[in-house]
């Protein structure tokens, strides 16, 4: 799939009882994640979550769903994001999920996802997210978690009481944020009638967020009560169009995108979408020209600069890509995805020591991108540091749920690295997770 090929991804393992494992994928793109952060900001602030770090992450799944598994992340399926027609609808979804966090609904889930900064802990959380994303009540195990209960019993089906409470809280957050409360009504309109369908035919959102006629009527009344409080939010509208525009540009055929590139009404988004379409057609000249138009419209935008870097690196213009990423890093020095991409470009140009520096910074800030670990392993191997190459390979496998393979490489790293060192301790963490998983089989 072109989007997965182009965007940064993090693989997540799904363990099932009666069906083959299904891989779920996080779509990691700095532009889309920043855009969703901007759309969510007023709603999260109204919910009292503005001072905390709540990330909005996109799951590569064309079905319609959104969910939370902890207090720090809201997951939204790519299919649901593309289904949203305006910023108010997306904000309604985010407000509802934020309400599940603030109302304490997660505290009643008998599972601890370990908010660990380790590969094994991250792998556990991503495996749990994959189970939720699938929408399958019979999914069990979550290998990295070692959970005995099914995923459905653990966390991903809300009760009707929880849904009603989240609706009411979410509507208050929308009103306080100045967002249009009719956005929530519009979202519910999408799922009306789902409750009469068999479970196999329902959208995951309807399975995880039970909808009733009474609930729909209550939301309608709440929207009427909050009518007139909404105000125009040009920032949310722009970033919604940018997130949806970029996502659709990589999930749709280039011809489809080029025919609709200007539908957002923003010249820079039009140019960005054209760049994505031309890139998929392997037309580097027109792709670079288009992204340069976007940069001319928004000079200093690190996310457009990052897109230029990705176009160049995938066209094997490694030094030009490194130059573009270097500019993006100066403009957004704390963005883990941009740091990782710069490290990848430096590695491609033979600047191995510098590559490790930026790859490590990326990993320290956000350890969920297995491509960063893959690149670090390559860089350490080139420098002859076999112990660290084995360690980061072990962590990459742990992140992906491949704990047996992770254990093999962690044992090798443990034998090669100085006992008691930071790297040695990281290897012990992966070894312990692999041993627990082996015992639970």
UniProtKB/TrEMBL annotation:
Residues 34-220 form the Peptidase M48 domain. One of its GO terms (cellular component) is membrane. Keywords: Hydrolase, Metal-binding, Metalloprotease, Protease, Signal, Zinc. Its cofactor is Zn(2+). Residues 1-23 form the signal peptide. One of its GO terms (molecular function) is metalloendopeptidase activity. GO terms for biological process: proteolysis involved in protein catabolic process. InterPro entries: Mito/Outer_Membr_Metalloprot (IPR051156), Peptidase_M48 (IPR001915), TPR-like_helical_dom_sf (IPR011990). This is Peptidase M48.
């Amino acid at each position: 799939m072109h989007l997965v090929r182009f965007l940064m991804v993090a693989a997540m393992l799904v363990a099932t009882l009666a069906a083959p494992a299904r891989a779920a994928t996080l779509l990691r793109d700095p532009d889309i994640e920043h855009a969703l952060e901007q759309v969510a900001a007023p709603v999260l602030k109204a919910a009292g979550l503005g001072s905390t770090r709540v990330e909005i992450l996109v799951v590569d799944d064309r079905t319609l769903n959104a969910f939370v598994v902890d207090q720090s992340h809201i997951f939204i399926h790519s299919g649901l994001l593309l289904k949203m027609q305006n910023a108010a609808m997306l904000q309604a979804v985010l407000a509802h999920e934020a309400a599940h966090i603030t109302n304490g609904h997660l505290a009643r889930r008998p599972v601890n996802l370990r908010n660990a900064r380790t590969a094994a802990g991250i792998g556990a959380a991503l495996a749990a997210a994959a189970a939720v994303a699938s929408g399958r009540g019979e999914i069990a195990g979550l290998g990295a978690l070692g959970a005995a209960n099914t995923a459905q019993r653990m966390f991903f089906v809300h009760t009707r009481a929880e849904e009603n409470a989240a609706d009411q809280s979410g509507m208050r957050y929308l009103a306080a944020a100045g967002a249009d409360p009719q956005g929530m009504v519009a979202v519910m309109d999408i799922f009306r009638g789902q409750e009469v369908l068999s479970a196999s035919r329902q959208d995951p959102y309807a399975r995880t967020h039970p909808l009733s006629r009474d609930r729909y009527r209550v939301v309608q009344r709440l929207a009427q009560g909050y009518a007139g409080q909404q105000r125009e939010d040009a920032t949310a509208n722009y970033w919604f169009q940018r997130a949806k525009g970029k996502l659709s540009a990589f999930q749709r055929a280039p011809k489809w995108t080029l025919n609709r590139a200007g539908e957002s009404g923003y010249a820079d988004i039009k140019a960005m979408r054209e760049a994505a379409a031309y890139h998929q057609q392997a037309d580097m000249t027109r792709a670079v020209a288009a992204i340069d138009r976007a940069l001319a419209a928004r000079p200093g935008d690190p996310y457009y600069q990052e897109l230029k870097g990705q176009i160049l690196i995938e066209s094997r213009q490694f030094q030009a890509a490194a130059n573009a990423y270097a500019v993006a890093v100066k403009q957004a020095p704390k963005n883990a995805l941009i740091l990782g991409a710069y490290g990848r470009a430096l590695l491609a140009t033979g600047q191995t020591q510098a590559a490790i520096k930026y790859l490590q910074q990326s990993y320290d800030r956000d350890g969920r991108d297995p491509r960063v670990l893959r690149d670090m392993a390559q860089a350490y191997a080139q420098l002859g540091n076999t112990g660290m190459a084995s360690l980061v390979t072990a962590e990459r496998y742990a992140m992906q749920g491949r704990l047996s393979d992770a254990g093999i490489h962690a044992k090798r790293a443990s034998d090669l690295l100085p006992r008691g060192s930071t790297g040695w301790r990281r290897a012990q963490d992966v070894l312990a997770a692999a041993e627990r998983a082996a015992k639970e089989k």
